[in-house]
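Summary: Need help interpreting a holo structure output

Steps to reproduce:
1. Submit the protein chain below together with the SMILES for zinc ion.
2. Request a joint structure prediction with the ligand placed.
3. Inspect the structure token block that comes back.

Expected: a single structure record containing both the chain and the bound molecule.
Actual: see attached output.

Input attached:
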Amino acid sequence: MLTDQEIAMYTRRLEAERERLLKEIGVDSEPHNQGNDVTKAGDEEADEAEDFSNKLAIAQTLRDEVQEIDAALEKIRKGTYGNCEKCGLEIPKPLLSIAPESILCEKCKLETERN
Ligand SMILES: [Zn+2]
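--- attached output ---
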């Protein structure tokens, strides 16, 4: 079982990481740039297209990470954080401290990734 202190610590880590990822994606929690006056000079269009698709791929990865964090935060709210979403066993603390967004134990994670 996790103590309240541990859960509070993981919550802070998850929220900080979530904020960092959202900033990286370019979504600010506070909308401040309401104007839609973004213009781009298209000098090297091919390069830009490639750059753009790379950015999309990175943004997708970052969004997946945000989703994992959201799922972990949801588990904290439900009071099931620290237990595997699939088999219900406790997730080992060393794993949580490396990856606080873990919602599956190592065994279930491996099984999910294999599929
Ligand atoms: Zn499991």
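--- end attachment ---

Reviewer comment: DSSP finds four helices and no strands in the chain. The mean pLDDT is 87.
Status: needs-info
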